[in-house]
Amino acid sequence: MLTVSPALAIPEAELEERFVRASGPGGQNVNKVATAVELRLDLRASTLPEDVKRRLARLAGRRVSEQGVLLIDSRSHRTQAQNRAAARERLAELVRRAAVVPRPRRKTRPTTAARERRLESKTRRGRVKASRKGVSSDD
After folding, report:
1. Triad 17, 34, 38: Cα angle to 5°
2. Which end of the chain is more exposed for a tag (fewer CB within 10 A), N or C?
3. How many Å apart are CA 82 and CA 61, to the nearest integer?
4. What is the DSSP-derived secondary structure letter of residue 66?
């Protein structure tokens, strides 16, 4: 069970882990041991609430396949355990961010005084620019 918050948890059965060989630090060990982790979560089959799934898919962006599978890849550490923990933490952080319901935007309008200030500054700026024009000589 991957516990994201007190209210949200992802059952272990919904997570799929694949271990693959990684490039990078590790010396000869890199060629022998599959330390990189590919963590997969099928969003369509997940028990997460629908609104969280929608926000999670939007936050994850390219990491979600057309089939609705979220893929998190971790290969920055030398050991399988560290990569596994890093991938799970990144997934938990993504789900935490998706669980936050965004506040709806309230439309606002500029005040009359603000409109007048804006127009006055535009007029003033226009006068400054007009004063830069050279005087034409009609000799």
Report:
1. 30
2. C
3. 25
4. T
